Structure formats: structure tokens, C-alpha cells
Amino acid sequence: MNPIVNVIGIGRFEWQGNPSNLLQALEDAGVDISYSCACGACHLILKEGQVHWIQQPIVSLSKGQILACCVIPKGDISIQLPD
């Protein structure tokens, strides 16, 4: 069974396993997320679940923050877009 990605306040979608990272999966699902390839621009708040870091970030993150371009879900996750 594929993991479910719950974007708090927006909706849910099933992770198909084929995007290279969470950022691509969010875009494919129609979620408008800020990014600019300036490291840190695509940060999200991981509310529940775990992710696998496919690339280590080059910026410091606060506890609970993840970078959508650097992770894939390990299972069901809940994430929140920044304010």
C-alpha cells in the first residue's frame, strides 16, 4: 500500500513512489508550494510520520522542518505549508 501524504488544510494524495522527491509529488498533485532552488525555500513542517532524507540540506532547519526537495515519505505523513 502506498503512503498517504496529508497536506494540512489543503488535502491528501497517495504517494505513487515515482517522483524523485516530495516537492515533485506535491507539484504533481497540484499543491502550490514555494521554491526557487535557493536552499530552504521549499521548507515544510512535518507534523506526523517520518521521511527519508535523499539529500542532506545545506541550511539549518528548525525542529520539525523538512525540505520538500530533499525527502521522500517513509510511510503516511502529515505536513503543513509555512505561513
Short description:
The chain has one helix spanning 22-28, and strands at 4-7, 11-14, 43-48, 51-53, 65-67, 71-73, 77-80.
Task: List the defining traits of the structure above.
two-stranded antiparallel sheet; 1 helix; 8% helix; 83 residues; mainly beta
Task: Describe the protein in words.
- This protein has one helix and seven strands, in the order ββαβββββ.
- The mean pLDDT is 92.
- The termini are far apart.
- It is globular.
- 8% of the residues lie in helices and 33% in strands.
- The strands form two sheets. Strands 2-1-7-3-5 form a five-stranded mixed beta sheet, with no helix packed on it. Strands 4-6 form a two-stranded antiparallel ribbon.
- With 83 residues, it is mostly beta strands.
User: Numbering strands along the chain, what is their spatial order in the largest sheet?
Assistant: 2-1-7-3-5
Query: SS-based structural class?
Result: mainly beta
Query: Largest sheet, if any?
Result: 5 strands, mixed
Strand content: 25-35%
Radius of gyration, CA atoms, in whole angstroms: 11 Å
Number of strands: 7
- Principal-axis shape equals globular
| Helix coverage percent | under 10%
List the helices and strands in order.
Answer: EEHEEEEE
What's the total helix number?
Answer: 1
Low-pLDDT runs: none
Question: What is the CA-CA span between the terminal residues?
Answer: 32 Å
